[in-house]
Fold:
Amino acid sequence: MDQTPATLAPDAPTLPILIAPHPMLRAKARAIVPADARPVAELVPRMLATMYAAPGIGLAAPQVGVGLRLVVLDLQPEGERRPRVLLNPELIAASRESEPREEGCLSLPNQYADVVRPLAVTVRYQDLAGTRHQIQAEGLLARCLQHEIDHLDGVLFVDHLSALRRNMIMRKLAKEQRGE
Ligand code: NI
Structure:
């Protein structure tokens, strides 16, 4: 996947990560068009720096207050860096089999829950040069892609849980954010 020098810039300034229930996290992001090339090229290194600093394995643009369909991932943030940058990612197929797996989110710090999702997915996206790609993913990558694409539609992992469990997590998060 995409690994231009710009996307690897480790010293880009970080951005503040929005914490739920910030309304921006609930908005549907818009597709990236060619006119967005420059702002996107400037944003990507900052999103990667923010993700690595957190540390996290994925970050979607709405989490830093930008309503564009842009996702960065790196499944091994502590080891050799392998950043992936996806513009306009789309879930085009998902396996019938699903499994529960624990998820967290940089916008819901310290909150974790088992989320049931398809085991394998096919995702179509564009790289920074606008070239179209399609990947088949399973395991952690499939999980992470689904979680991040959800962010582009204003969906958080807690939305896949029961209302009871979701409310418990949101209350706990609010309490922790108030410093209680
Ligand atoms: Ni997240």
User: Anything to note?
Assistant: Helices lie at 5-8, 37-53, 139-152, 163-177.
